[in-house]
Amino acid sequence: MRGCRPAPCGAAPASMARSSSSAFHAMIWPAAVNNPTRIGLPSVRASHRRPPRAGGRATAGVCYASQAVDLLPALCPEIVVRDARLEDCWEVADTHCGSFFPGYKFPLDLVLRIDRYIALLSGFTVPPGCMRTCLVAVNSNSVDSSFDVECGDPRDAGFQKYSLSRGSVAGILTVDTVADYLPRRGPMKQRRTGIAYIANVAVRKEERRKGIAKMLVQEAEARARSWGCRSMALHCDVNNIAALRLYKNQGFKCISVPEGARWPEPKIAKGVQYSFMMKLVPKT
């Protein structure tokens, strides 16, 4: 709903957070421009109701990106986006760490990957009424290879053997409705509902520039729609211009944060600033 600041289709989020409800949480793909155009949430909703101008040019704020892209052929037809499976966990952890923490060396990088792997296995628990899923972009043309992890004594009834895939996951994205990074509402500080939050967007270096990040975001939008969400949100590193461009092309708008407001945001490195972005989820 993420790393130090790589190129857009690979690593971008500059922060990760943990909450009591989940171990694996939010590395957000931040990306931004030096002087992003900022608008308030009310103006986004208002513009959504205005019809497009004559000539086919949509009014500012109208989110037509997902509809338009459906008319175009897939940029990378061998890539399939689906929910992460148990056997994908190690590759998801490897993609996450390799994108967001590329400077880490052995043994710290191995420790970090193991930590992410364990967190991923236990991180799908969410508060009642909330949803979360990890999406993976899988390269169907990659060589199907896997390795087994054995736990326990083979002579023991509790012995377990896990099969982990390798060389197939090209990109990852997490989307949820937990609202950990959305401002609470009301005097009781209640969680916001009806908003899907995107985090942990990362694409392997060798798989970038194929439209994989766009495919992941579009699938996240489809999930948000199936969950009944009315809008989507994310945080972008203000220095990641390419990622900001991707999100704007998908209909996201920068939302101005009131002066002095303490809205929650990911924290992973000192000095990193974020743009808070949202978009309305089209009904069809």
Automatic annotation (TrEMBL):
PROSITE patterns: GNAT. InterPro entries: Acyl_CoA_acyltransferase, GNAT_dom. Gene3D superfamilies: 3.40.630.30. Residues 79-279 form the N-acetyltransferase domain. This is N-acetyltransferase domain-containing protein.
